[in-house]
Write a structure and sequence with these properties.
This protein is α+β, with helices and mostly antiparallel strands and about 725 residues long. The chain is about 40% helix and about 15% strand. The two termini are about 30 Å apart.
Length: about 725
């Protein structure tokens, strides 16, 4: 509901820049009234003349979220170049200012001048406690376009306040910087929050607050979840939805005793019954075809980790495969050297796992391999495995497994590769390259760009809930004795190693999809739906970003002189990539083209790339042998020893399997309160030009969606993870 009020202001003979100040007042005893005060910018008149008063209409809008209304007192003041109005209190009861909570979500304020001109002040944030929030008109401006001391001072104070609120923290050596959530607890002791916050609960038992929750197998770092700035935490709707996704699945496994059952699976078919009520078309297809070589190769193209393949022109010395080894697979009409020259041979190299630490699960030592997997694109257009070596060091104790080996030898070798896929995908492709990097982008955006900055307006939708979901992950998965310590071969120490090592080798080429595909030599592989859909979405984002950047940055100088923009990219370089020049990431932006590429890559990785590597985890992992999280026996050093029993004894135990599949289920289900790619219900841009660009972007995404759905109708296994309506705008799960 929109509430209106009018207030007198000095008559203004000309338009001028303005700032709206929202001031939730100290709460009064019940009954309470919510108050809004407002005035528009005015100009001073000679002291001898009384000011001419004008009446302005002020509309304030509360957001659509659950509990978005408030009982607090609200007032509004309008500031101009020559002064400010007296306070006007909002006192009309309704949904916005009756039943609610201590927090209030203000969407925007619209002020109508006597001549009918409307000025919109975007807010789109939660306001709580005794504080003042200053807003500017919706027109986006860079610091170079502001000359008035009032506005320059406003930019400075806004960033200073944000930098005090959102502080960097080092989680572990070699990690990107993360948000320091302990700072929010400290801020709650400030007087401006004291009236609206309850006292923090004291820990009982573990002084660190890292405790077990009854019914759950891992510890949870509760204190880090208790204190969160309202503008980055989940909405009530999303929180409830997440709990409803988690509790029934977890409770069902608990009641069936699966979360507590140790030991090997008795037979493979028993795994089918874990998620008997959560089957999908893809998960059923995986269950039926997981052991087939063409499907093994298919997952390198369209599975959850479609970024591993590199085209080879010659074999590396550490993989001494000969033509005689693979001749039965290649057939009589070609040879290995010919296929290398044709660009039909590819390698998946898991070198990063060679020195990864391992730990124990259920009291038993776990194992990790660092395999090399050679694949061939056959004349039928299928990618199939040719040879697998389970270590980086060839020799008698590291045999090269082939499709002509015994059934169980070959299946066990492929399963080891799938375990390596799990580790590299979860730690590097997924968590590092989307979650952690996108957190760093979000932090730098909040700390270095004011609300009126065009890049802030562009990126804000793609940071939504990222800081919250990563805080949840650190409190439940990455914490000591968290879920990672209960389901993976390397545990938390392995995770720390893989992420720090992965970041040390991550480059700007890896980050930009077209460059990555070109560098890996995979631009012409058929049936590579991730590549095809990803390039379309990249192009759509690039076109959209190019229009926005072109509107606000008409020249190289306009980019170079934007000190806020340069501080933003500099902080990303320092905090996300630890100042490593060999990464190739920009330390400074010099042209609009460089800015367009950087912004395109950020938006793509915060949205489409995360969808591609996250949304299919349940589909491809529900059948555990296809994606085992740990291995209980060392990699085989000889051939001819694998059997069904030894295979089952190598796979994860029952409780480890179920804990991991529960995680797969949760992260594959985006909770409610979703915003698909290209959906911008918060109108941060108020000018016509960027709004036209947004509409064009949405139309192009709709066209891409139609093309994807038409193609999928002809596929045995549809690929829908990059269908725009199912891509979330941000990393939020």
């Amino acid at each position: 509901m929109i509430h209106k009020c009018t207030c007198p202001c000095p008559q203004t003979p000309r338009p001028c820049s303005a700032t709206a100040r929202l001031s939730p007042a100290r709460r009064s005893p019940p009954p309470r009234r919510c108050l809004l005060e407002s005035s528009l910018p005015g100009t001073s008149l000679p002291p001898s003349l009384p000011p001419t008063m004008a009446v302005y209409s002020v509309c304030v809008t509360t957001g659509p979220y659950l509990m978005a209304g408030t009982l607090d007192n609200i007032s509004v003041t309008l500031l101009g170049t020559c002064g400010e109005s007296p306070k006007q209190r909002l006192d009309r009861l309704g949904r916005d200012f009756a039943t609610g909570s201590d927090s209030w979500y203000c969407s925007f304020i619209c002020v109508t001048a006597p001549d009918g001109t409307c000025t919109q002040f975007p807010c789109y944030q939660w306001i709580e406690g005794y504080c003042t929030v200053e807003l500017r008109p919706g027109t986006a401006t860079t610091i170079c376009q502001d000359s008035l001391p009032l506005l320059l001072d406003h930019r400075r104070r806004e960033l200073q306040s944000r930098q005090e609120c959102y502080r960097w923290k080092v989680y572990a050596p070699g990690f990107p910087g993360i948000i320091d959530v302990s700072n929010f607890e400290e801020m709650e002791t400030d007087k401006k929050f004291a009236l609206t916050k309850t006292a923090p609960c004291t820990d009982q038992g573990d002084s660190s607050g890292n405790q077990y929750l009854p019914g759950f197998p891992m510890k949870i770092d509760f204190p880090s979840l208790l204190h969160m700035d309202p503008n980055i935490r989940y909405s009530a709707t999303k929180t409830v939805s997440l709990l409803f996704n988690a509790i029934p699945a977890s409770l069902g496994m608990k009641l069936r005793g699966l979360l507590d059952r140790k030991g090997s699976w008795k037979k493979l078919d028993d795994i089918r019954n874990i998620f008997w009520c959560h089957k999908t078309v893809t998960s059923e297809y995986v269950t039926e075809h997981w052991c087939e070589d063409p499907f093994f190769g298919y997952q390198y193209l369209n599975g959850v980790n479609p970024v591993m393949l590199h085209c080879l022109s010659s074999l590396p010395s550490k993989l001494p495969v000969t033509h005689d080894m693979v001749a039965p697979s290649l057939g009589p009409d070609t040879c290995l050297q010919t296929e290398l020259e044709r660009g039909n041979v590819f390698l998946a190299d898991y070198w990063i796992l060679e020195e990864a630490p391992v730990h124990c699960l259920n009291g038993h030592q776990q194992y990790v391999a660092a395999p090399l997997c050679l694949l061939w694109l056959n004349p039928q257009g299928a990618l199939v495995p040719l040879a697998i070596q389970l270590s980086q060091n060839p020799g008698p104790q590291s045999p090269i497994f082939l499709p002509t080996d015994s059934y169980w030898d070959w299946l066990l070798a492929k399963t080891w590769v799938r375990n390596s896929e799990f580790l590299v995908h979860e730690h590097n492709t997924h968590f590092l390259c989307t979650h952690l990097l996108c957190e760093a982008f979000s932090m730098a955006t909040l700390r270095q760009l004011p609300l009126c900055h065009p890049v802030y307006k562009l990126l804000l939708p793609h940071t939504r809930y990222t800081l919250q979901v990563n805080t949840i992950a650190r409190a439940t998965l990455l914490n000591p004795d968290g879920l990672v310590d209960h389901v993976t071969s390397g545990g938390r120490q392995g995770l720390l190693y893989l992420i720090s090592t992965g970041l040390a080798h991550f480059t700007y080429t890896d980050f930009c999809l077209p460059d990555s595909l070109r560098a890996r030599g995979v631009l012409t592989i058929p049936n590579y739906h991730y590549r095809d859909d990803g390039l379309k979405i990249w192009a759509a984002i690039q076109s959209f970003v190019s229009e926005i950047v072109g509107y606000y940055y008409p020249s190289d100088a306009s980019v170079q002189r934007d000190t806020e923009l340069q501080a933003w990219v500099g902080e990303i370089f320092a905090q996300a990539f630890l100042g490593r020049e060999s990464s190739g990431f920009p330390q400074r932006l010099c042209t609009p083209g460089e800015l367009v590429k950087f912004l395109t890559a950020i938006i793509f990785n915060c949205s489409a790339q995360h969808a591609a590597v996250n949304s299919g985890q349940h589909d491809f992992g529900a059948w555990m042998p296809n994606t085992p999280s740990s291995m209980r026996q060392p990699p085989p050093r000889t051939k001819g020893t694998a059997t069904l029993k030894s295979y089952l004894d190598t796979l994860p135990e029952v409780n480890v399997t179920c804990n991991n599949l529960l995680l797969f289920w949760l992260v594959s289900q985006e909770p409610k309160d979703q915003r698909p790619l290209g959906t911008y219900p918060d109108q941060h841009f108020t000018e016509e030009a960027p709004r036209r660009s947004i509409a064009a972007f949405q139309n192009r995404l709709a066209q891409i969606s139609q093309e994807i759905r038409e193609r999928n109708q002809g596929l045995v296994l549809p690929y829908a993870y990059l269908d725009p309506p199912v891509i979330e705008n941000s990393v939020s799960i």
